[in-house]
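Protocol step 4 of 5: obtain the predicted structure for the target chain.
Materials: sequence only (see below). No template structures provided, no constraints applied. The aim of this step is simply to have a reference model before the mutagenesis design in step 5. Sequence pasted as it appears in the construct record:
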Amino acid sequence: MTGEPEAPPPPSRPILSAIRGAIGSMPPAEARLAETLLADPNGFAALSINEAAASAGTSTTTVVRFYRRLGYAHFKDLKLDLAQEALRARLLTRDLPAEASDVARDDTLEQVVAKVARDETLSISDTAALIDTGALARAVSAISSASRIDIFGVGASAVVSIDLQRKLSRIGLTAITWPDAHTAWTSAAILGAGTVAVAISHSGQTMDTIEFLRLARAAGAATIAITNVTDSPLTHEADVVLYTAARETAFRSGALGSRIAQLMVVDCLFIGVVQADYSSAVAAIRSTYEAVQPRAVHG
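Step 4 output (C-alpha cells):
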C-alpha cells in the first residue's frame, strides 16, 4: 500500500477525444502538455516521462497529474492507449491516401480531399464510440413529448441548429431556431414546463449559448446540450448532455470537424424521435415529400 488514492478507471471515450474534451479545463502546464501530445500522439507515446515533461517545458510532477486526470494509474498505460488509438485510426482510414497531418498551405487539392475525408471519418467514428445511448434516450423522450422545442447555436453550430429545427418541423413538431442571441434569450425566458431548449456549442463556452440554456432552465424548460467539452459551462446548465468527439485542427478549427460530429448526433436524435411515434412521423415525412414534388401546370 502506498497510501496514494486509487486512480479512477480509464476514460470511456477514445483517449485523444478525451484529451480534446478536457483541455479547456486543464491548468496551463497540463494544457501545454496536452497540446504537445495532440500535435504528435505517436511521437509522444515513444517518450519517457522525463522526455514528455521536457517536450512541453514542464515537470514530471505535471505529467503525473496529467495522466491521473485522464484516469490512468501509470504513464505506461497512457502510452499504451495512445499506441492502440493510433493503430485504430490507421485501420479505419487505411483506404484514404492521407498522412496524419493538418491541411498545409501548399497541399494539392487531392491532398486536401484526402485529409478532410480522413479527419471527418475519424470524427464520426469517435463520436459513435462516445455517444451515451442512455442520455440519447432521455433527449429523445423529452423532445418527443415537448409542446415546443427551441434550438440555438452560434457560428458553425447555428448551421446544425437549423438542420435540427427543419428535421423536427418536418415530422410535425413545433421547433424554432433563432438567428441572434437576444431573440433566443427572450424566447428562452418564457419557456416553461413541457418545453425543451437545445443548445449547440463545440467548446461549451460560447456565452450567448450558455445564457440561452440558463434562461430556459430557469423558466422550467428541459435543457439539452450538444458539445465536445466535458465539464464546460454549458454542461452545467443542461439536464442532458450529448457529447461529440470532433477532430479540430488549427487550419480548420470550428468550421468542419465540429459540424460533422454535431450533425451525426442530430441525425441520431432525430431518428430516435421518429421511432418514438413511427407511424405519424413517417406519414408526415411522406406528406412533406409529396408537397415539394414537381406538379403539372394547369392552364
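Step 4 remarks: The longest strand covers residues 195-201. The chain has three domains: 15-90, 95-130, 133-291.
Proceed to step 5.
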